[in-house]
Every structure is written in structure tokens, then in C-alpha cells.
Amino acid sequence: MPKVKMPRKSTAIDMTAMCDVAFLLLTFFMLATKFKPDEPVAVVTPASINTQLLPDSDVILLTVAKDGRIFFSMDGQPKRRQLIEDLNTNFRLGLEQPQINSFIVGSSVGTDFKSLKQVLSMTADQRKQTNVEKGIPTDSTNNELAIWLEYARAAQGGNNRNLKYCIQADNDVPYPVIKRILDTFKEKKIQKLNLVTNLKAKPAGSAAAIYEAEQQAQK
Fold first, then answer.
1. How many CB atoms lie within 10 A of CB 12?
2. Domain count, the chain
């Protein structure tokens, strides 16, 4: 008895539902994402041939403006929360929750403890337009930068071996300002530092250029 041949059905999959989900996810991330806030100061760093990139985590960054003002920044919102709450408690800064939240999600700060509440109460545009941020003091009689480093290191885990200390200084910063920063690191027994620079081409005939050419030739 001959077999009945069953008609083959189409295996096409309706992708309409998946496309809807993809667009819903895209819309969610577009509406929920918060971009990194603008820094209160812009710097033009010197150039070097170092190709190592600044890491995204475990970083304590000091930005030094052209006029010598020092700004502090650190990654990680939970770590920033612990840092600012510890400072607020131990130094009685009088910060309330709006100012604490402003520090947690905001950019770097460059002021003394006395003016910190005023600075954190401003918007990013207001901070740029006013001259309230005079820089973190590094005087021998009032070295608040040393306090920032000490409390930031504690918030980062104390013995965090991946922690990197970076200095992003403008090309025209007076050397005495950098020296005071280095002296502060020395005081806190921090020996390894990283200088943030712009990338420039390797000089022709230099050891770095010759090594790069040899590596490309071997590929």
C-alpha cells in the first residue's frame, strides 16, 4: 500500500515579537542612561609615546588646572558614597543628602572643606561660571589633599593592589604645584604614580620606533 506523503510545513519564525523586545530595551537604556557629567575644568596634558590606557576602575585621579588648582575624583559610586559620608561625619561638613548625592554621581571637586557644601549644591554649569572652586589646599598648615587621599584609599579597600594613583596636569602647571602634590604622596607613603598624557608619534630612529617597526615586520 503506497505511503501518503505529508505536505512539508514552513519553518519560518515570526520575528515580530523579538524586534519589539529589542526596541523596548533600546528605548529603556536611552532613557535610563546617565552620561558622565562635564568636568569643572579642562586641561591640556603634555604628550608622550606611552600607549597604556587609563583604567576604568580602581583609580584615584587628581586633575591640576593651568592656574594650579587641584581637583579630586574617584571611580565607583558605592566607593564615592563611603568616602563622602566618612568625610562628612569625621569633619562635620554639614552635608545633607542632596549634596551627598551630588558628589556620588558628579564630577571631580576642587575646593576646601569649608566650601564643599556650597559647591555640591550647584549645578555643573554654575560651578563653571563661578569662581568658588579655588582648588584643594596643599599647604603645610592645611593639607586637605592628604586627607582626601587617606580617606579615598580607605574607601577603595585599603590594601587594593589594583588601585592606581593618576595625575592629570595641564602642560603649563607651575612645577611648585606638582612638587607639593608629590610631597603629599610621599607623606602618605604612596610610591607608584601614573601621569596622564596625550599620545604622540614615536620619534624616528628612537628605540621605541625601532622596536615597533620590528614587531610589525614579524606579523
1. 6
2. 1
Per residue in 93-115, pLDDT (tens digit) is: 999 999 999 999 988 999 999 99
69 φψ region: left (φ > 0), alpha (ψ -120 to 50), beta (else): beta
Q: One-letter amino acid identity for 27?
A: T
pTM of the full structure = 0.74
Question: pLDDT tens digits for 143-164?
Answer: 999 999 999 999 988 777 888 9
Among 84, 101, 97, 126, CA closest to 34: 101
Q: Range of 117's domain?
A: 47-199
33, part of any domain:
no
Q: What is the DSSP annotation of 86-124? A: HHHHHHT----HHHHHHHHHS--B-S-HHHHHHHHTS-H
Cα distance between residue 170 and residue 2, in whole Å: 88
Q: Is residue 214 part of a domain?
A: no
- Return the H-helix or E-strand segment holding 82: helix 77-91
**CB count, 10 Å around CB of 100?**
16
